[in-house]
Amino acid sequence: MPDTPTEPPAGRTTDPATAASTGSSSGPSTGPSTAPPTGLPAELTAGQATPGAAAANTPSPAPSPAARTGYGPVFAVPEFRAVFAAHAFSLLGLVVSEIALSVLVYDLTGSPLLSALTFALGFLPYLVGGTFLAGVADRFPARRVLVVCDLVCAGCVAVMVVPGAPIAVLLAMRAALAVVSPVFQGTRTATLADVLGDGELFVLGRSLLRIVSQSALLTGYGLGGLLLTVVSPRHALLVTVGTFLVSALTLRFGTRRRPARAAGGQALVRDSLRGARRVLADRRVLVLLLLFWVPSAFAVVPEALAAPYAADLGVGSTGLGLLMCALPVGTIAGELFAGSRLRPATRHRITLPLVCVTLLPYLGYALRPGLGWSLVLLVAAGAGSAYTLGLDQWFVRSVPEDLLGRAMTLNTAGLMTVQGLGMALSGVAAEFAGVRATVAGAGVLGAALCVALAVAARRTERTGPPARAGRGPGADGSAERAPAAVSVGRGTETRDGADHDVTGR
Asked: What is the pTM of this model?
């Protein structure tokens, strides 16, 4: 839970901080200029194509110091406020359900294994939903997909609330939630590109959703535990049903209806697999996916080994809690600083360098640090994940319009899967090498792979027109699609035989 670091992707719409230097805007002229959404600075929409965009050679306005306005303009878009609120509600429900269901299963069985399995089932089925159901994100209108996913999740949790529900049913419903989640999250992320465009507002919107998710790790479990001191686990699950229903209502009445991105001419599973093949066949998109996945797979190692590491340090449960919180704190701090204080051009330049160094603090574990220095190392590693702000924009601008939902769903599923594998493999490695050596080794191996991927990302930079036509917020705060552009740059030869793109959480 992210164009080149020194310049925007050739032929794509530019970010505010780079618009003046490139002097270009993608998309043909179709009429008089369309004003940016009310309340949004012109600098944030400069260079983003709209239905009324100026001709391609018309210079964008020079950015002013006020262009670095932070997260405020994102909340000026009404649809984003609805998406943000729905995200907060559904996330609250998920956190409460994870705690309540784990406690409920343990109370019914007395088995630590089955209790832990309820958490594991939050990772494993992501691969199923993200692979075989990804086509849903593009074959149906996004708002309908989001609302139906929320209603399905509410129904699954409602089944858990039924008195006397067998353990097998409880675990099956937990798995069903995890199958639906990547479809919902992928569709929601693709919807952000419709609501905010694929430029600066999209980057900051994605960042805000990640900050909420990381904050939930710090506060959600504590609040969920407090709730269980007042009500029973089954009654606590009713809170989750309510939050999913509120999320569904917020999305239904707070966002616009948009048509599906792609036609559904074949079976869903076949279409999903075909879409995944098309996404992975593009070398540029594949490299960007790996830049999301590989650092995440290694970043979770200290978290997975926090309990035995705290025992080695002799810091007890308090120290364990601090170790578990350090990475999210660093991540939130890094995202907030990069999103509110750095210009878009600066974030682009530091994306690949940050990818290369974000895991290096783990090498400090080899020096046998105490609790204080361990926390410093973890916060530093978490702050390095601010590279995702730049990566987000590169990814959304590299994926063809008719594949955007499937690509986002695949990305979500891959992230959850590699994190689960990273946790499992780190435990195996620690059995033989010890905790400190495993974390330090993860830093070395992970950094080496990140450097290799950064080099590959440089080599796959596109120099021709964009893979997708640029989009920017329209006058009502929602993004409109510009006409598709022909892709003739590097990376085109790796697509599935097409020489142009088909336009259409």
From this structure: 0.70
